[in-house]
Amino acid sequence: MLRPEQNTGLRLQQRMAPQLIQSLRLLQMSTLDLTLEVKQQLELNPLLEEVVELREEGEEEEELREQEEGLKAEEDLPADMEEVDWDALLDDQFDAGAYNSERTEYDPNWEADREPQENRITAMPPLLEHLYRQLGEISGLAPEERAIAEYIIGNIDERGYVGCSLAEIAEDLQVEVAAVEKVLRVIQTFDPSGVGARDLRECLMIQLSQRADPLSALALQVVRDHLEDLTRRRLQHITRALAISNEKLKEVLQVIERLQPHPGLLASSDYNNLLTLDSEVAYITPDLVVEKIGEEWQVWLADGSMPSLKINSEYQHLLNNSHGDGAAAVKDYVAKNLNDARWLINAIHQRRTTILKVGNYLLQAQLPFFEQGPSRLRPLVLQDVADAVGMHVSTISRVSNGKYVQTPHGVFELKYFFDNKLITDEGEDVSVRSVKEKISQLVADEDKARPLSDQQIVEELSKGRLKIARRTIAKYRDQLKIPSQRYRREL
Question: What is the pTM of this model?
Answer without folding.
Answer: 0.50
